[in-house]
Design a protein that fits this description.
The protein is of the alpha/beta class. The protein is 41% helix and 15% strand. Helix 4 packs parallel to helix 5 (115-134) and helix 5 crosses helix 6 (149-156).
Amino acid sequence: MRGTDPGTILGLYRSDHRRQVLEHALTVGIRSLDTSYNYREFNSHRILSSAASDLLPMFSVSTKVGFFRESGRVAHSLAPGRLRRAVEESVIDLGRTPDVIFLHNPEKSLVGIGPTHARDRLDAACAVLNEAVTAGLCASWGISSWDAGPLIQALDGDPFAKALTPEVLMVRAGLTVPSDQLDASERTAERLGIPPNRLWGMSPFGGDAARDVWKKIKAATFLCQDEQGSNVQAVFRASYELPKVTRISVSSGRIDHLRELVAAESLKVDLDQIARYRQLLREKKSHS
């Protein structure tokens, strides 16, 4: 059974930013929000501050920097100056100090370059967020990665170099994550020295809990025999083990759905079934 500290984070990537959604989250016991500098066409922070400035102190708030407006499009960058300005703007627009600021999908700027260059670029970006903590612009910093493969390649490019250690690592979690990405996430956490209680997950339903695939999968097989839960709850609870994470960011604006997910946290998981599933994923990968 998971602990009593609520692990469900209200992710605002797909959730709208209405005050009512935040009120729903508070009603069901959610006390964490996750957003980003670029969400809602780069207006997420301002919308939250305008619509619910009095509610924000009730949440632990995490945000991200890494995507920017560029010549009419959205582009990724790890340029230290741009990251620094984005951090400063985030604090001003939110009207409060974020509890965590993540480096947003750094792998986007690490592919296609040599491992030494990739490592230097990653280290410089991490240094900006580490300095932001020292300057009091955020309480802690982390890395949020959709695909940790390029991250581990950059870190392993110089295995003897010590990396700056983020306090949190957020990675994809759940039944939609391929075997190689699960392995890369776990290796990245180990390489960075991230303890299990500081590894978070995101996108447990692969973007949509209403997809037909979730009606076809008998997710209850991942629960202990004496546990009773809906298919959605079983999928969500299993996501905490794929990989092993303590919190999961999920988008939803419906109070019944949020309540269902929070209730799922207390369900007991059959870890042998999880291990068998991981093995099946590896076998499928080796034969593809």
